[in-house]
Task: structure prediction
Amino acid sequence: MTQDIPVHDIQVIGSKLADDLRAVAIDIPDRSAIAFSGGLDSSILLYLSPMSIHPYVVGLPGSMDLRSAGESASLMKRDIAIIEVNEDLVLKAAFNVKKIDPDITKTDLGFETVLYLTLSAISEDLLVTGQGADEIFYGYHRFLTGGAGTNVASIEKLLKITLPREKKIAESLGKKILTPYLDPEIMKYSSFDPSMQVKDGKNKLLLRAAGAKLGIPNAVCQKEKKAAQYGSGVDKILRKNQELLF
Result:
């Protein structure tokens, strides 16, 4: 495993990734919805999407994601729709997700509840998500500590468990989801050495370099963001009611 990759090499690969992201984004249909939290993954997709794309953010009043999405959207000169939720809506969504997957873990229930809330609120038939970016570009916090090794197991779980479940969630609401990061041209970046993805306490190095190359504001490219279940406030409600759910 290479321990020190020159910054120049990361910039060169990031530039190629930017080109590939542009090409993949061409296939995002007009007048679709996009799950937008204000983080790097969804910001890249929104930035490359047609102006007819409608971004939605889910969160409890005052939640981190509502603020983050507003800040990032403003920097990119895009308008967003806010899906403000409460405890009752969160619990109803969580119970519906558990009906679809009775064996779902507590951690997975959090982000899938956010997905359910988004899908149930949009008027569009297709929702674009940033699913896969954390697995491909080492976005999870556990990768920052170096103890998680490579992303192989994370990608395997995504493809075998998470994506089939999310397809069922979408179908239960009469919707479809589109995952541009899982296009083969983007998936190939998952095989790069971890040292090209994480260094000095910073993750998603290649994706951040690509974002900068695309022209996305630096404040968005360098933003650190919590997972949707935490940033939205959904996890707090699920933990409060875990005896009802599990």
The chain has one domain: 7-238. The CA atoms of residues 208 and 221 lie 5 Å apart.
